[in-house]
Amino acid sequence: MSIPNGRVPDGPNASASPEFTKLSIFYPMWNEEDYAARALKFGLRACEDLIAAGEIGDYELIVVDDASTDRTPQIVDELARSDAHIRVVRHGVNRKLGGSMKTGFAAATGDLILYTDADLPFDMSELSRALRLMREYDADIVSAYRFDRTGEGSLRATYTVVYNALIKLLFGVRVRDINFAFKLCRASVFDHLELRSEGSFIDAELVIRASRMGLSILQFGVDYFPRTRGESTLSRPSVIVNIVQEMWALRRDLSSITPLDRTAQGD
After folding, report:
1. Do 49 and 11 contact (CB within 8 A), yes or no?
2. What are the backbone dihedrals phi and psi of residue 4, each rounded to the nearest 5 degrees, phi first?
3. CA 65 to CA 95: how far, in whole Å?
4. Could you give the CA distance from residue 163 to residue 169 in angstroms, rounded to a whole number?
5. What is this structure's pTM?
6. Structure confidence by residue, pLDDT tens digits, 55-112
7. CA neighbor of 174 nearest in space, from 128, 231, 130, 218
8. How far apart are CA 180 and CA 200, in angstroms?
9. Strand partners, 25
10. Cβ pair 28, 41 in contact under 8 A
11. Which of 63, 103, 139, 177 has the most CB atoms within 10 Å of its CB?
């Protein structure tokens, strides 16, 4: 299901008990000294707004430091010391996006988990819309897509169009912008789903496995704010080769994935 403008009924009354007990937001970070402090500042502000609105009861921000070699570790450690809502999980060696996402999902203690990038490619105020969509449509995963891709450059935009078409062709998954770093998931998803990718294919793996299991995936559009500092590694030839390898590995594994019996779970 796709909802372009996200127009849904209002959220719960601020005085009522929130449906979502705790929101975990995690950021995979590798050499993000230009963005780390801003990402956590905006995350704190968005979560405090959600608490004030009665959307969530508590929250945590998790930095997955993927063996950064710049000042990222010092920046996030200082922020974690100053705010108990911030935690840092550190990799001894660089494990790329897939390894960082698996660490983030495993470290999260909330009943709701958001994964996003440190460069904040969307306005964090969109979180309120995403929570309303998840609640009103009883979705397991809410995945955002970008309204306007022109800001990232024509080459990256072309890669994305081809990649999404390939995912649709090979796996039958109709999700726009499948690699966009906005995946809001119920923690219960990971009671049944195990991610295996170590690279950038992990976004698609999450959606493909969830879709094959019969979980509900909802899409909505957001304005996109491209990275202006640092470096994105997604278009590197080595990354693309690794994506293709993991794509074929998942195709071999699909026969072992069966739909969940939602009736037996009381859904």
Report:
1. no
2. -60, -45
3. 10
4. 10
5. 0.84
6. 999 999 999 999 999 999 999 999 999 999 999 999 999 999 999 999 999 999 999 9
7. 218
8. 11
9. 61, 114
10. no
11. 63
DSSP at 163: H
Six token digits for residue 45: 């502000």
Give the C-alpha separation, 116 to 122, whole Å.
Answer: 9
> Longest Cα pair distance anywhere in the chain, in angstroms?
52
How far apart are the C-alpha atoms of 261 and 80, rounded to whole Å?
41
d(CA 63, CA 58): 17
- CA separation (Å) from 26 to 43, 106, 166, 180? 10, 10, 28, 15
Residue-wise pLDDT for 121-171, tens only, equals 999 999 999 999 999 999 999 999 998 766 666 777 777 788 888 888 889
CB 91 within 8 A of CB 99: yes
Residue with tokens 């440190």: 118
